[in-house]
Design brief:
By secondary structure, this protein is mostly helical. About 20% of the residues are buried. It is built from 3 helices and 2 strands, in the order αααββ.
Length: about 60
């Protein structure tokens, strides 16, 4: 089960920012994707999640592998 904070992320949902984030990840444009994370209201929770789960793919909390 995913944590509730994920629904509040800049990359969640169907808005333009979320769509742009996903497109950047597909294109492996991590630097640009990280820029979208800067203003994300749940950036720190996201980063903490990624570190705890040892995520090695994509951008989490403004950082990548």
């Amino acid at each position: 089960m995913l944590p509730a904070w994920m629904l509040d992320g800049a990359c969640a949902g169907d808005d333009a920012d979320a769509a742009e984030f996903r497109e950047l990840l597909v294109a492996r444009e991590h630097t640009a994707a990280k820029m979208l994370c800067l203003e994300c209201p749940v950036r720190l929770q996201c980063l903490r999640w990624a570190l705890e789960k040892q995520e090695i793919w994509d951008v989490w909390g403004g950082l990548s592998e």
